[in-house]
Amino acid sequence: MSRPAAPCLPVVGSDTRVPLVDGRTVTYANLDCAASAPALRAVADRVAEVLPLYASVHRGAGYLSQVSTALYEASRRTIGGFVGAREEDVTIITRNTTDSLNLLAGCVPTGPDGEPGRVLVLDVEHHANLLPWQRSDGGATVVVGRESVAATLDALRTELAAAPHALVAITGASNVTGESLPLADVVRIAHDAGARVAVDGAQLVPHRPFSLAATGVDYVSFSGHKTYAPFGAGALVGRRDWLDVGRPYLAGGGAVRQVGIDDVAWAPAPARHEAGSPNVVGAVALAAACDALAALPDGALERHEAVLRERLVTGLEGVPGVEIVRAWADSVDPVAVVTFSVVGHDPGLVAAYLSAEHGIGVRDGRFCAHPLLARLGYDAGAVRASVGVGTTLDEVDRLVGALAAYVAHGPTARYEVVDGCWSVVDDPRPLPDVTGLTGLVGTAAAALGAAGSACGPAPAATGPAQHADAVELARV
Ligand SMILES: Cc1ncc(COP(=O)(O)O)c(C=O)c1O
User: Fold this and answer.
1) What's the confidence (pLDDT) of residue 438?
2) At a CB cut-off of 8 Å and minimum separation 6, what does 344 contact?
3) S-S: 220 plus which of 201, 323, 373, 379, CB 3.0-4.6 Å?
């Protein structure tokens, strides 16, 4: 009998019931927190509290405009403080991690040789921490990860010695495996070679306490929607000098000191990169999440995750044919993001089955990390389960039990691939009774497939001609 573990913090929707294909309803098990985490109750309460105070910010003369401006700027301080910003660091409110990294990519300065600064990344990165550098002026050197942490660090060192780089941009925790390189080592190696370090904190910041000041990392980016504040804000925090003179991220009002017909004097950061009306509510929500996470007792978050991850990995390893994806054999202290493959079975079908027959939400595909999945031999994708502060052991046990049943007996319902997406044939599940929703869940999934999400299987396994193959594989 499973033993439910108490959530670390209450989240909105933890008791939401969802329909199954057999007509029953169950409490939704959200094991897709790495993609987007539910709002903390404290975040939702804070948003409800400040909404009546909301008004235009920065240039409004009204009383509520001044209140909103104060709320926005106080949120900025809280968000920076949460990631250990140094006195001289700047906190820029962005939309998400992708936005933050694209912004930073426009601020990498030219080197002493007058050449645009080059950026070094690993092939384990999420596309958000790869593509902005590849198309930046200086371009990117992509280092292929090695089997061990030590060998990968050696490869970084060798590459940095071979050619000057302005920046090492590295994941704080992989969105595929939850693993990471030891940041202290990366910082030392990069700084010794004269390069700065930017950490993609999308999967680190929600899962572990992190401090720029304590680690010596130069920049960190993260997303509100992964940090229990799904209100459209994220952040880039770090050294002011590059951000004060770098290319303004967006051209527009609020980012300037003075504009003439033929010239413009840009403001320094953060205003320089925040043109347009800022997302006040998003920033307030993210700050509320930061406050709630920071108020947890020392070690509580790590303990909660360690228990859940251990249960997840042990459970998955006990299911015949399940293989856990690892980037490094010897990495330590991964966050609770676990990707696995059910050998011989299509990950899309497994994920559809978990949802339709068990009310469990996971993610399948290549997780916007195509180079890593290709190198590790998972071009056809895999399945990812990820937990958060609201997850219980019971939910993890439900996943393991459902997978064991799948491997033993296969799915009960009938599934088909529609526009590249696995769905239940004649899916009877209704959408919730919310204004504007009509049709079936399957219809929504199919629409996504039609939009051509590139995080699914590699092209060779998709497209109309391959659907039959995918179905065959799934039926094996
Ligand atoms: C490690 C990592 N980096 C970057 C991103 C991009 O985050 P966002 O979609 O919030 O911009 C993600 C999203 O899954 C991620 O997991």
Assistant:
1) 63
2) 321, 473, 476
3) 201
CA–centroid distance, 24 to ligand 1, in Å, is 34
Is residue 294 within 8 Å of residue 288, measured between CB atoms? no
Ligand 1 atom closest to Cα of residue 97: 11
Q: State the DSSP string of 162-191.
A: HS--SEEEEESS-TTTS----HHHHHHHHH
Catalytic position from the list 107, 290, 368, 421: 368
Determine which residue's CA is closest to atom 14 belonging to ligand 1. Answer: 35
Q: Where are the domains of the chain?
A: 17-30+298-475, 44-294
Atom of ligand 1 nearest to the CA of 368: 14
- The two structure tokens encoding residue 108: 């990498």
Residues with CB under 6 A from ligand 1: 34-35, 96-98, 126, 128-129, 171, 175, 200, 202-203, 223, 225-226
Is the domain covering 17-30+298-475 a CATH 3.90.1150.10 domain? yes
75 in Cβ contact with 286 (< 8 Å): yes
421 is catalytic: no
CA of 126 to the centre of ligand 1 (A): 7
Can you read off the two tokens belonging to residue 394?
Answer: 């019971």
Is CATH 3.40.640.10 the classification given to domain 44-294? yes
Closest CA to 116 of 139, 143, 142, 141: 139
The rounded average pLDDT for each run of 10 residues, N- to C-terminus, in the chain (476 residues) is 70 96 97 98 98 91 95 98 98 98 97 92 98 96 97 98 97 98 98 98 98 98 98 98 98 96 97 97 98 97 96 98 96 96 97 98 97 97 98 98 98 94 92 69 51 57 33 28
DSSP for 269-289 reads TTGGG--SS--HHHHHHHHHH
Which atom of ligand 1 sits closest to the CA of residue 172? 1
3-state class of 308 per DSSP?
Answer: helix
